[in-house]
Structure formats: structure tokens, C-alpha cells
């Protein structure tokens, strides 16, 4: 062999989140998917490996027959390989093995049915790898996976070593691993094609057994910034080297013209060459993900260190072993992510329990009918496992409220099916109320779950005795799908106006108690920059009473805490009881307070009673079109022609607030009353939107996360306030 050669397998990954907007599917198809596959089709001599997530493939099968036909032709002429993975693109590490295997079989079966291809490789969602993966991957007949090359270098391998494939095992089950080439990933399509060709030439050998794996999101080739123009529009490609020729045909022509670049699929390479050696990789994802997952303060430090090491040629040995965080920490960093994940596990366990009951039914017709419902519930669970909204980074969508809503919708749908199964085959009662005490969040603390045929109320006694989830089952709607405005590393960017970034000190749960000064303004409340005087806001309440009957449930919580005096900051003891009652679709919340009478401390107590008020948080979330959100109050008169927009800041004195999500025909109504013996003052209500300032693939954006209604009451030495909430 006279000329040096190198293998270049090319992998494109196509994915859209479950329940993403239809216009997004269409836009991405037009700008990226369609032109990319058309160009691949027109270069039959070049081999490609493709991955399409199951829900996107279903959409393409339904909407884009010409696109599918091109794939079928390329499959028949042995030009493409299609790899599998989880049907709804889950992170395998956080779902049970049964679900991993089922989702993988679903996608492999669909690929086999539509394209006649045997699936041999597995796509790792967000390229998250854990050492236990070979065990379950082998159970579905998969032979290889793709992992970033920096994880190989972290084990001590050199850059040269990453131009080969390796094999790893778990419990004796093996899987081949291909390293993704980082340099090629960053060159395409941002640099002229000769950069990639020169890089390949540098590592080509006379033996010709090296493999440089080029991988890219298909969306990167068309919808990231100006990439549609760069990749497909004549004259808009790179001027230097490519003469303005669009990047995709320019790259494919380079591969055709340089015969020493050998086109191959990953399966073909694996069949041709054995693994270089056995290897064991640590838990890993791509480099940016390992930054994003770190706690915000640590992330700022880590990004600085990584940048310094990577840019210094003399410190490359240190950079080689620099590792960031662990993907699962997103479930700690964002409690909202953890809530969705633990809700999924909780509903899933309910489903497996009813599944066991159904399996023992004697009547075959009943078993078959029930099994159909069970299968439907499992599909809802699988859809809820789509990874996109469980994390945050450039493409992670925990800040995308409609994706969180999608997760809850599918989970509540599954839960309603479970409820119906129990109704039909166990209790025969369509109406029910239950109370469960369990460690729902898996943090060694007990939560209280009130559940009925209409509502779920999830209470965290140790976080201020607050409600963190409120599901209205008839609409499969989590009213508390609110995201807290968390601090992010990019908030320190010097280009960001400080006034744009509002940060919450406490998670946005319902019935959080705030002791605030009488002069506290709406602006300070919205920014959460007022001074807090009470210890109850995130204090540890004890459950002192649990009662339920056929139609209602009552939970009472109690905390002995204190309130600071505004001028001297002395602590004055106070006991607060919270009573949460569910009856049909109405929730009543009562807070009772009692300041101790201390000898010679009357002045301190009087100062508290004169200067401080009690605020009660009533956050909620609507998912429809915000321009169609409306609110009204019996205590507010609007001028004729005024549009009472929900997302506009407002304050008023009164005891009634009603709001409406037109898109879902959902009403939420609050009635406030002062039950105190010697104090019948009206409450004051403060309404403001919860807007998070976040960084996305489209740049910095202000994203709506919900509404907070704060009711403020005048307190006495003894006080009692009641709030009724109706959902319909």
C-alpha cells in the first residue's frame, strides 16, 4: 500500500422532543432534514450511519413519504445503516431496565419493518454513558455504541489511540465502543472543508486501519444560526478554500475526490477489524454537558480552569484528565427535574402493581381488555421519559415549560388509566380519596400525597409545609408546573443587564409563608429581594393530623418557629398550624398563628404586629397561549375595553381572584377570608409573572414559567386566614 489511508464513518443524529410544536418539526425538516438527506441520496458512493428517534420517525412516516422513500432506496443499495436506541430518546441511566429494553426493541422493530435493516448499533441519548450499559444493550442484540473520545483519553489513552474501536463488558456481556472525533465535530460545518481534510491526512497511515468518526446532529446542518445558508445555499458557503460552495456538497465532493479517505459504516468497520483492546470507561457525557451539570458556583470555576488548560499547549497532559460532572446531578441541581423523574417512577410502580393484579384475573375477556389499557399506559410512561426537559444546557429544555407540561400530561394520562383499571377490576368505585406518606423525592424525607379521582396534592412538610405538585386529572394538567428562577453561570456574562435577571431564594411552591414589612413593594416581591423576617418560609413542619373519608382528606401541619422584629432583629416565638383539606375539586388552606405572650416583651411583639404582614404564595402555571390568559376579580373594576392580561403585574385589595386558560378551558378561582377574631382587614393581592432569564440555542431569552399570586394579610397576636381554591 503506497498511499496513506483512513476510514471516515459519518453519523447524523435526527431528533425532536416528544410533543414539540408542529411548526418546529416542519421548519427543521425544511431547513435541515430534507436538504441533508437529499444530498446524501445524491452521493451513493458515500456510506452513512443515521439515527432517528422513534417519535420523529413516526412523524416522518406520517407526513413525509418522499423522505422515507429516499431512506428505503438508500437502505436497499446498502448505502446507509440505521442505528437504534430508546424509542422516545430517554437517558438510559435514569429509567428501569425493562423500559430501556422495551423502548429499544420498539425502535429496532420499526426500523426493520420500514427499511428491512437489522439494527446493530445503539445511539446514547445526549451521549450519556455508564459502565453498566453493556448488560442491557446485549439483551436487545446490539453490538456497538458511540462515545466521546475525551472519555477514552481520561483513561490514559493518547489522541492516536482514539482512532480505533474498543470493547468493554459488564457482567460478562460485551459491547464495541467507537470514539467520536472531537476535532472533526467542531470543524463541521464551521470551517472550510480543507480543515477537515488536512486533519484526516495528518492521521492517515499506510496500514489504513484507523477510523475517524464524524458525528453531527442533523439539526446542526441547517437550523443552528446561519447553517442552512452555509450548508446548502450556493455562494453562501465558506469563501476560503470552498469558494462559497455550500458546505455539505463541498465536504461530500472532498471525500469523493480524495480516494485515501475510505467511506464505511460502523458495522462494516466492526466486521473488518477487531477491537484494539479491552477498555473500561467512567461515567461520561460530552464535554459541555459535564460543565452544565455542575452546581452553578462550581461550574463557573470549572469552565475557567478548562478554558485555561485547553488553550495552553504545555498543559495538555493535565487537560486530558480533567473531568466535569455526572449527568444524574441534574436531578439535584433542578428539583423540578427530580420531581418529573420521581413522578415517572411513582406512576410506573402503580402501573406494575395493577399489572400483577390483572394477570391473575380469571375472565380472559377482562384480562384482554385490561391488557389493552395497560399497554396504553406504558406508552404514556415511555413518552414521559423523553430526555430533553430533564436537564439544562444549550439544548436542554427544563426551562421549556411546554416540554415539562408534556411530561406531566403523559404521566397523569397513565395515572388515570391505572385509576380506571382499579375502578373496573378492584373497587368498582369511580370516586376515591387516599393519603400516602412516602419518600417521594428519594431524599430520605417523607412527603404527603393526597390523591383523588379529580386531584393530586403533593405536600412537602419539611420545605415550609408547601405544596409542590397540584394535578387536575380531568385535564391531565399540573397546575404547579412552575420553574423556580435558579441562578445560572451565564448570568455573570458582562453583556447581560443585571435588571434582566431575577433569582428566587426558595422553590416556587404553593402556600409558602412570608413575613414581610408593610412597606414591601410589588417590585421587591417580584424580584424576591425583600427582607424576610420569619423562619417558616422553608421551615420544617410536622404532620400532626391525617383524616380522610370517602369524599375528603385533611392534613394538619405544625411548626414552632420565630419572627424577627424589624428594628432590633430579636426573635419572637410563634407557632403556626397549616390545614390543607381536599373535597371534590376544591382545596381549602387555613393558616393559624399564635405569638406567645412573653413577660416584658410586649414592645417587641407590638413592633412585629405594627410593622409586619403575612404573605402566602399561590403560584400556578397555565400552558396555553398567554395572550388568551384572562383574570378577573369581584374586587376590581376594569374600564370598558381594557384587556385584563394575566402576565401583567398588578396589585389590589380584596378577597377574590379568578383566572382562565382559554386554550385548555381551565378555570382557577381563589377565595380569601380573614378568620381572625379581632381583625377582619381585607387581604391585599400581588400578581406578577415568573420569568426566567435563560440561555438557549437561540441566544438569551426571557421564558415564562408561571404566575405568582401573593396574598398579604394583617396579623395579630392570634390570626387565622383561609384560602379556598377551586379548579374547573
Q: What is the number of E strands?
A: 28
CATH architecture of the largest domain: Alpha-Beta Barrel
Low-confidence stretches: none
CATH fold annotation of the largest domain:
7-stranded beta/alpha barrel
Roughly how much helix do the residues carry, as a percent range?
25-40%
Q: Which radius of gyration do the C-alpha atoms yield?
A: 29 Å
Q: How many DSSP H or I helices? A: 20
Beta fraction of the residues? 25-35%
What does this structure look like?
With about 725 residues, this protein is an alpha+beta fold. The protein folds into 3 domains: about 5-285, Alpha-Beta Barrel (7-stranded beta/alpha barrel); about 335-430; about 490-725, Beta-galactosidase, Chain A, domain 5, CATH 2.70.98.10. It has 20 helices and 28 strands. It has an 8-stranded antiparallel β-sheet. A hairpin with a 2-residue loop joins strand 26 (about 685-695) and strand 27. The longest helix is centred in the middle third of the chain and has 27 residues, at about 400-425.
Quick description:
With 728 residues, the chain is an alpha+beta fold. It is built from 20 helices and 28 strands. 32% of the residues lie in helices and 26% in strands.
